[in-house]
Every structure is written in C-alpha cells, then in structure tokens.
Amino acid sequence: MFKDIIVGVTPSGVDACAVESAVGFAKKFESNLYLVHVAGMEQGWGSIETLEASGETARLEARIREMYASLLADLPSVAVQVVAGIPHNELLRLARKKDTDLVVMGPHTKEYEEKRAQMWGMAGSTLERVSQKARCPVMIVHRAVECKDPAFSNILVATDFSDQSECAVSYGGQMVRQYKARLTLMNVSETSTDSPQGRADIEARLQAEYGDRLQGIDDFVYAGRFGRPAMEILNMATQIGADLIIMAHHSKADDPEEAFLGSTVVQVSVNAPCPTMSVNRHFDLRCGLMYDQTGQVVDVAATV
C-alpha cells in the first residue's frame, strides 16, 4: 500500500515517534523509506548556500543515521538525506520526485509539549504547508504509537460531505480493507440540536452518500453527532479506542492561513489519542480505484 515513504526528521530526536511509525510501515510493505532533514533554519538564512560546502550537511546526516541506527538496521531500502533549503519546499519537492505514497511528520520542535497549540497553529509552518499541498496522505504522529500487527484495527473517518471528504472516505475504505479493520464513519452537525431522530437522519445520509464506496467492508458503523466537530471527533476516537483518524484537510475560509488556523484537522491532530491522517484536494484523483477485502476491484468513480 505504501511503496515510497518520506518522514521528516530533525537531529534533535523529537521526531522519534514519527520515525518509528514510518519504519513499521516500511517493514510491512517492503517500502522505500526516506528520512529527510532540511537544514538551514537553525543555521540562519544567510548560510543555507554554504551548508553543503562546509560539510555541515554530512555531519547532520551522520548524526541522524547514528540516532536511528537500531530502527533502520533491518530495513531493505532506506536513505537518509540532508538538504539545504526551505523545509516545506524541499519535502514537497522530494515527495513529487519520488511519487511518494505517504509523508509522515512529527512535531518538529523541542518545546512541543509546552507550545504544541501555538506551533500547530502557526501560519506558514512546515506542517501547515506540507499538509495543504502534498499529493499524498500526510500522517501526523505526535506521541508514541503502539507497535502491533495489524498496525490499525479500529479506524475512524470523519466527513463533512464535501468533495475532499469523499476522497478521505474512499481512502479510509482502502485502509480498512488493507488492515481488515473496523470502520467508524462519522459526521458532526453544527446546525441542529442533538436528538435521536437527528442522529438517525445523519446516519441515513452517510449510508446514502458513501454506501457504495464501502463495498466489501464487513465491520463498519455510521455515527451522527452534534456539536463542535473537533471535540466530537476526539470524543468518538477515545470512546471507540481508534488507532487512526482520517480526515480531509480543507476549510471553507478563502484565506489559506485563516483556513489552517481554524481547521478541524489541526484541532484534532494536536489532541488525538492516535495518529491523524489528512488528505487534501491535490490527492483527489488518486482515489478512484478501490478494492474489497477479497482483492476484487470495486467500480466507484473518482472524485474530480
């Protein structure tokens, strides 16, 4: 499912959880794994062009290899790359070049635990730019993930019935089929008051909108909720013991910075009890070919 995986790293080791998750995927799928650190920010903008010539990139690469040596020892195909430049530009460039199937990212700051809300809401951050523009799913890992087989047994997919969310549902279906996991598909309404009939109406719409895309999945439930989307998604993830949350990264706001600052994806990711995976509009064309649990193709049109 993942043949080429990029994980963003720093020499500080704060990304260890993200690296461990990426290594787990690489082992399961015999993937090509790329650990990428973009140097330049800490050294100062004026010295970016001199980093390689000075030998600093080579020293950083050696430090990262030593830091993760035990994790990388058994991988058949792994590369550590240190490049100079602007972090989100270089990560996106490499992802396009390798036609990457997954980008894994961690917090990328030593002060993460104390300042995570500020860091995640920072307009122009690496996490923001990569999540908005990557042509593949971006998995956000901010805490230790239990290593188990299968890696995911209980997947939560949240939708707001947008075009981007339709793709997130389709991709969630792929993940559920691959891992033979349980699926919870939910929508949160902010426009009505909670009631049994209201929840039933949402669940009926979920079935009508996405039933065809869930062919071949035996274990799934629809869930309708009312309230603040981020809060309800987090409550549901905790309630069902989800080990992965999948959402669409988008917003109705016209200003990209305002959209990111107020996005439900950000609010969920910084507080989720498990990794969060986001897809965006650049990924839509990849989700047309779906498979059921027997490996047969399910005839569902792609979102465009």
| N- and C-termini, Cα separation | 22 Å
Helix content: 25-40%
* Parts with pLDDT < 50 across at least 5 consecutive residues: 109-124, 253-262, 288-295, 299-304
Largest β-sheet summary: 10 strands, mixed
How many strand segments? 12
Pfam families: Usp
Family: Belongs to the universal stress protein A family.
InterPro entries: Rossmann-like_a/b/a_fold, Universal_stress_UspA, UspA
Protein name: Nucleotide-binding universal stress UspA family protein
Question: Please, could you describe this protein's structure?
Answer:
There is one protein chain. The chain has 304 residues and is of the alpha/beta class. The chain contains twelve helices and twelve strands. The strands form two sheets. The chain has a ten-stranded mixed sheet with strand order 3-2-1-4-5-10-9-6-7-8, with helices on both faces. Helix 5 (87-98) runs parallel beside helix 7 (126-133). The longest helix is centred in the middle third of the chain and has 17 residues, at 163-179. The radius of gyration is 19 Å and the shape is elongated. The two termini are 22 Å apart. InterPro entries: Rossmann-like_a/b/a_fold, Universal_stress_UspA, UspA. This is Nucleotide-binding universal stress UspA family protein. It comes from Desulfomicrobium macestii. Belongs to the universal stress protein A family. Pfam families: Usp.
